[in-house]
Amino acid sequence: MLFLEFKKAFNDYPTFSIHEIEKRMPRFNKMNLIRWQKKGYLQKIRSGWYCFSDDNRNETFNFLVANRIYAPSYISMESALSHYGFIPEGTFSTTSISTLKTNNFSAPLGTFIYKSVKPAAFFGYSLEEHTNKLFKIAEPEKALLDFLYFQKNINTVADIVSFRFSKPLINEQINRDTLLSYAKQFNSKVLLKKTKLLINYLDA
Question: pTM of the prediction?
Fold first, then answer.
């Protein structure tokens, strides 16, 4: 098979799996994937998943990839907080929440990190569009709660301050009633306490 023929068939995919290739091209020779990687046409993201080497790489492209290579999942924590402008730093990895086991994958695109939660805590995400494709990302309130949930030793407002959150942007984008309602759905007294500390910080 010619690479140009293959690229035309999968050019609209941010990433594609061997299963998707075989479903669309039943006679496809897997050795092509090895040859095309050696030639620099393809990059392997994780076992069974690939992308084209000349794709336009940016944060939201990685979000699309992250959703697909480990599903169900949605973008959250530092990645979502940076996306919304809630933290000053950019992130060098893409962090997601999943109901699957905690996992991470290192790839030429960067590192993809997945934090595991119970199904009851897998909520509070919405769809955003990038290049006519949709990716799942935590709503602002849920991104904050996911972040707090996995942070240890938060006992005072000073601990919240240490994260250097952008108070004006958070106050502009979140709804406190939604924040508290979502926190209660975790059924965690510890998280609820952290959430109230965050609100005290935002109100100060």
Answer: 0.94
Please count the residues of the chain.
Answer: 204
Extents of the domains making up the chain: 3-52, 59-203
Counting Cα atoms < 13 Å in the Cβ hemisphere of 187 gives 6
Query: Can you read off the two tokens belonging to residue 157?
Result: 């407002």
Distance of alpha carbon 53 from alpha carbon 43, whole angstroms: 6
Residue-wise pLDDT for 114-143, tens only, equals 999 999 999 999 999 988 899 999 999 999
Q: Where are the alpha helices (DSSP H) in the chain?
A: 3-10, 18-24, 31-38, 59-69, 77-84, 140-150, 157-161, 167-173, 176-185, 189-203
Among 3.30.390, 3.40.30, 3.30.460, 1.10.357, name the CATH number for the domain at 59-203.
3.30.460
